[in-house]
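Entry 12.
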Amino acid sequence: RGDAQSLTIDADNSVYLINSSYTFCEPGQNDWDIMASEINLHQAKSYGEAYHARLRIKEVPVLYLPYFRFPLGKDRLTGFLSPQISLSAKGISNNGNLTLENTVVNLEHFATPFYFNIAPNYDDTLTPRYLDGHGLLVENEFRYLNVLGEGEFSFGYIGSDSAHIDNTDGLSPDELDEQRPSERWSKALYHSGNFGQYWQDRIHYEEVSDSDYSDDFSSLGLINRSSHLKQNVEVEYNDGTWKLLTLMEQYQTPDEAITVKPYHRLPQVQLSRLGSYDVNQFNYEIDIEATRFTRDHEDLTGVAKMDGERFHSEVTLSYPLEKSYGFIKPELTVMHTLYSFQNVDTDGGYQDEVDRNIHIASLDSGLFFERNLQWFGDSFIQTLEPRIMLAHIPYVNQSNIPLFDTTQTSFSYGQLFSPNRFTGIDRVGDTQQISLGLTSRFLNDTGAEVFRASLGQIRYLEDRKVLKDPMDNTYTDEELSSSSSVAGEVQWLFSPGWRAKADIQYDPHADADIEPIEKASAQLNFQSDNDWVFDLNFSHVEETSQKQVGLAFFAPVNDRWAFYGQKKQDIWPYSQADRVLKEDDEEHFESIEGLLGIEYQNCCWRVQVTYEEHTRSDNTKDYQYMFQLHLKGLGILGTDSDKILRDRIFGYENRDIHDY
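Predicted 3D structure (tokens):
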């Protein structure tokens, strides 16, 4: 709505306003408006123009624009987007507390994005961004959508980054230029498309100028934060029966200190029979793969230095029998793998070729029992579902095979019924085992599951001999134990909006001086229709000496006001050694990250003020104050705190209750 000293409407329904104003606020509540000497509303073209425009908040001018072009409705329009402003404060801890005398408040970054609406299916956003300490970063993001697919190409560029040079001490000017280039850049291409009825193609390409680029600028969203940046091209045929995948994949490892880098797959071809044939109730599946692996092997020795080709074929036969009261499924997988290696260390006993034949045999079975149950006045069906699986994998020495794309799986309840303890092809772990599991579920009168609890363990009939690391022949208690850890998990929907879940991994063979709980996690979450969010979580990993607790909430007081916060911290002291460390090191932090904020909104604007902090590895605490102002119908000023809240508060979605 708006008003004007004079108004003219022409034949094509365009409106011309003199000495006018407009706002999206309700009548009688002009919290903000735009006043201009002239406003032209071109209804047919869905855009407006304002000359000598002043943005006013509570009738106080805060911004002047000699010319302002804006969309009418939801259509996109070429022009400046809302500026992005971020203020931050950084300090150093003192006995776990922040000290104001060591605090610096500054302009973290300021950006003025310009949007190009090239066509309905093409657009581009150019963003000059000033970054404190780094200078001017120019970003560009081009997006497209056509008959061949959709994707985006982006780049970032800084001509001279003095802060990056200053990060390296003790080097001569020549060494500085070599080690820390002042010219920094990134580029990325993401594409997904279809051609023909069954063909698809995908591209994922990321590259940066130096090892610190991802750390410094990944929060801006153009590049992922990773030690190894993926660069691949995929072409896939999938007709619902057969699947053919051709892949070219390599990685950029910007940090030269990392000597062991991922293998490149140049190329990889996979042929799979999707699903299975049904011939007299026998099912079978076929998988064939051929891959050439190579990588930068400078400074590597032994098996780690080897490149090569791998041809793998796999056939699986199964005979599933399923009834309402249970199931039984015998299965046999036969695998043949042929390796041909280059850069072979013959002095270490390695061979130019390895031919491996191995099989996996299993017999999986389960029963289903159920009964009617009354619980707190409600009717339920309770199930009891015992499950047992026998698995046999013979021992085959594989220590002369590199780990091209294989790792050991993380143990959990779901892993109990997967015989091979490795993912990938290069290791197939020998075992003679019996997996035992028990699950109980509660189903309400609609058939929905409201409670589930599972507990299980693997009993080993023989010690395991196949190790992941070909350079390490040391067997751990895990390979020599007669049983696995006990794994359990629980999920409970105990009230509308409330959900609780937990899992645990317990070692019954742990020595008296060792913590028997190897892993544990728990989460209590609440989400309501009126935007309330509450999340309490706990995680424990004994191997990495980690115990953490987290709390997050978003609490609307009413339609206008809301409070929110998030906190994650270590639980200390963790052990007796940590107690000594905590006494000796007064600057040790328990807090990992946290934020606290308040939101207010009405019919025409929404504001969030947020305080955020996190602890760095060098015992300094970074913290910042974020301000976001959303003038509804116009744009957003300030830091995108909504994105941060979505990342940190599980279940959060921004409220737009009073939208126009």
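Annotation: The helical segments are 162-166, 173-179, 213-217, 477-480, 576-584, 641-648. The chain has six helices and 40 strands.
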